[in-house]
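User: Modeling request: complex.
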Amino acid sequence: MISTQRIGRGAYLASCTLIFAFLIAPILVIVPLSFNAEPYFTFTDGMLRLDAEAYSLRWYRQIVENELWTRGLVNSLIIGIASTALATALGTIAALGLSSMPGRRIAMALLISPMVTPVIISAAGMFFFYSTLGLAQTHIGLILSHAALGTPFVVITVTATLSAFDTNLTRAAASLGASPLLTFRRVQLPLIAPGVISGALFAFATSFDEVVVVLFMGGIEQRTIPRQMWAGIREQISPTILAVATFLIAFAVLLLLTVEWLRRSAAPQAD
Amino acid sequence: MNSNTNIKTNTLRPRLRATGLMLPLLAFIAVTFIAPLAMMLVHSVYDPTVANALPETLNLLREWDGKSTPDEAVYATAARELLKARQDRSLGRVATRVNRVHPGLRSVFTRSARNLQNVREGPYREAMIGLNSAWGDVQTWYAIRSAGDRFTARHYLNALDLQPLPDGSIARQPPERRIYLSLLWRTFIVSLSITAICLLLGYPIAHLIAHSPPRIANLLLILVLVPFWTSLLVRTTSWIVLLQTQGVINDLLVTLGLIGDDGRLAMIYNMTGTLVAMTHVLLPFMILPLYSIMRAIPPTQMSAAASLGASSFQAFWRVYWPQTLPGVGAGSLLVFILAIGYYITPALVGGSTGQLISNMIAYHMQTSLNWSLAGALGGILLVCVIALYLLYDRIVGIDRMRLG
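Assistant: Request completed. Predicted assembly structure:
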């Protein structure tokens, strides 16, 4: 009896280890390969022998020297930052109203819909719509589209933080003579800030990784990093992609740690 | 009396304020998101190309009996309007549109319009049939009349492998043109399989994290969240690197002598690639809702069940599993919703056999330029997603959706 239980426990832990490997290994394998001195997508004998000459920074140099990548980064940052600012402002204000809004469920369903709608449908519709307005192949068009795709994340994170917010605090501020705006700025905002920042990071990550809308709507002037990666994977696959991927992995880990840290600072009593 | 009105304003004002706060975002979403979707749906049923280019021809065709070729007046008008369409460069679009109703008519239109320039006088009927015998075919005029409808359900029928016949009835497409129903079915089956695999892989992981000591749980959670935050394109690239014929896994298998160098496995650019990469992308969406439900289940319950004589399987099946059903439902629905609309991963690693309905929409948007059909396929997919979304709201509640 005990031994079958022990076997069961061992099998359970072994399969969990395998599943974790499935989750993480594909991401980890990219990192050493991006330092490959040869233009291959696999480990060379030299790399396995940990031969220093088998490793190089040549693909990283190519990113910096290639104007397509640097311009892509600039475009990604412009579109990402502008759409995040828009999404965060609108999403935070809406979340403040959401808690006491009549018809809250319907409003919420509508506001979350950009997140669950298949992006191919959103992108097709946006292509038709922004072409009619003359905003296809412009930065403005992409900023508006990405802001729409990013707002659900802000609404969700800020609503979650607000559910833990003590409304007596705003009442106390009002009774002490603070205007609603002052109350928001000095009392409410500092307390919900972790939720707002998390939402902003989600929105930025969404824009920074978005490729389908850019594919449909962006012109050559709006090529972003993901758009450039897409072209790289489909057309001229080169190890430069692995170097960009490593950079993006580092960026993702940074975002993740920030969001986790914010979550903990927002809810010290939980967990 | 006075206090009564006070109460009223007290409940009304916060509601007005709340609505006022919501309005900017609601308006923004309505314009930047709902309006585009509506426009796509309009494209799927409304196409004025032919109606605008050949208005008088269509007017005359309304009185046509449809049994034999139309009379000279129709031919003369059609000739005039075709020439005009050629001049203002709308002929190409008109020809493409008619060609979709009746394949083969594109070249009839463009060539005839070019040659019509040399026809100075009637009778146009003989002249046009002389240019191309298709003008003497009743089917051609049926096609023009049908393509001339501004509003049409044809694209939805087409998306369901059906076609309208000239007599108004609806028939199935000929076997070689039936592609969409089987593609929809494949998308459904693939999404269901991915959901099942994610549940199978995600359940033990969520269980392990939920019942580990906090420090280990946090560490394990990070292992789930790293792929969740990592760029989709990066993860897809990783799978290409791992699975391609000259890739890491094949190299490893050859080195270990498990397969020969000429027997390398085709694990990518086919359905296997789609399944593996999509499972990897969607697995965190299964683990996170399961984890948040499991965390609330006290582990003492299992010891209580065991002390009452339950085997570990009985304790799991009768005590633990029923309590995790809300998480199973939430995770499965979320994964399924995301899977049926998936585009990027199948497009990059699916090859020709691993394509899903979204890839067909992209094909009609970008390659065949049949935007109406893309709109109709998108409309059908959208209806499926909305139905699932409402189901999710009913079972889980949209306002309980959490991230990470």
